[in-house]
Amino acid sequence: MYKIYRKVAKITLASYLFIQCFNLVLFTLPQNTYAAVPFTNAYATLSNSRFSYKAAIATGGIANNATYATIQSSGYSDNDTKNLFIGDTVCLNGSAADGCTNQTVYTVNNILSDTIFGFTPAISGTMNMNDFIVSTNSGQIAVTFKPTVAVAQNEKLIFTITAAASNYANGIPDSTGFDSGDLTANLVAQSAISSVGATSFNITSATLSSAASLHTVTVVLGAGGLSAGSTYTMSLGHASDATLRFLNPSPAGTTHTRGVSDSYAMTLKTTNTAGTVVYNQTQLKVNPVDGVFVSATVEQTLSFQIEPNTGTACGVAVGDRITTTATTVPFGSITSANFYDGAQKLTVSTNSTGGYTVTGYQDGVLTSGSNNIPNTPCDAAGCSSGSPAEWNSEPVTDTNDGFGFSLENNTNTPVPTGYLYNNGGLSFNAQPFPLNLFPTPGISIMNETAPASGSVANVCYRLGVKSTQPAGYYYNRITYVATPKF
Fold this sequence. Notes:
By secondary structure, the protein is mostly beta strands. It contains 1 helix and 26 strands.
């Protein structure tokens, strides 16, 4: 009988323990069966994934009025200038790395070597060895996710991002995490958070708290919450104000291989209104990396072409002119005291920011042995190089015979207004070519102050010989000089 009682007692005890354990398991099961279910299709994207820059000033510091800096080549987050580009802005910051307040912002204008760069304006004051050179990079962080279960209004979407252990909110980039810079607690008031994309959701409030090693963004969901199976995107950071964004880290550690990214963990989860139950918890990754500086040198260009003119020029039809070539103006045999006309086209193209000028000069008057045909004096008003006047009276007399030219715009307006053939109603506003006067030979016959593409001027030559001009073969040489102005 005693043995029977012992067996009954054991059975009773075992049953009691089973019931207690069952109750323990029963009452400690999560009340929401969706606990710890991850988001699907979740990822984070940096609109600007370039590392921030943080280097230390080398021995000797930076002297007053200096326009370049030398950095230390080892022992710091950045040990060369290879992620510092022309056009970047930098702050020269004290060794405490406590912000750039009241510091002038400088612009990088030259990369002189792996450890030396130039900047503008010149520094006012001095910087010491081990002070910092800082250039920040930042962008919006787009977090895309698909809830596996619905999340109700007033429940929370919580996003965390790695921060440094100290100085994680001072606007100076850190090598161990993102810096929250000028972001304050209320992200909504700063327009530093939004729902973007095809499927939007409502945000009642969004706050930021920054602490050692972790920034936490807490979003209270508005009407509609989040639907299961829908894809959402949340954007962190202001669209245009770079100061209201998380600052990208500088490279981790004290050595860094350029072109190799660092990886930073982020988490995204939802909680109920009490903040005690976690849904849809997911780990995300972002990888800042060095920027790529793309450069190209556009060579200075100038093209200049002389060619015959095959249309009406300076009011003279092609059938009433001699035929020119690119290198000759052959007036041929002169048999009357009337005008002989010819024309060429001058074409200029240049990428010079200051434009160009074309000058022309002659090596002398038309000469045959000891005889010559003079430069034109034009008609009664008279003319000289740089001071044109009307030359239109025929037949040619002893007082208006000679050789001269006029100009006409063909494409664009490169000809000085006073030199145009019909200036002020003058039918042929002419002048002679000047002689070569070193060091500034010639007269400017084409001129523009900006880059030009295919600007064309007509040069209209005119020869008038008096009836008593001695016989002979007369000639001279005209030279045109095209000069870009950079």
